[in-house]
Amino acid sequence: MFLISAIAAFLVSGAATLLSKTFLHGRIALLGSFAGLERSFNPGIAFGIRLPIQDALITAALCAVVYFAWRFRQLRFQQLAFGLIAGGAIANIADRLADGYVTDYFQVGSFPVFNVADSCITVGVFLLLMEGLWRKR
Q1: Burial (CB count within 10 angstroms: exposed 0-12, middle 13-18, buried 19+), residue 137
Q2: Less Cβ crowding at N or C end of the chain, within 10 Å?
Q3: Annotated catalytic residue: which of 55, 95, 99, 104?
């Protein structure tokens, strides 16, 4: 389950980024000024924050995800979540390696612009949190 969800997240994220780089040259309103498609370039990590050791942090975080996916390999739900996180992270790393920044394209309210890979990471983390809360009950 880990490998399937990681590959799916990577491929969908990569395809969406390629489409945005090819076709998205101006803002496209989806819900007026509240939500739309707007290409943005992020040279930093989450929310555009730049850190001097950001490449090392990204690599360490990805290694941690792979380790925990291996450690909890019997739990399919966690494998799905870790796969989404890893696939999204690898897609963002591949995008960054190509041109030095991550391409973002979803704009919602005043929230920072994000992409499919960011959404995969967020959904994966959310699933892990929900699963953890469910286990405690």
Answers
A1: exposed
A2: C
A3: 104
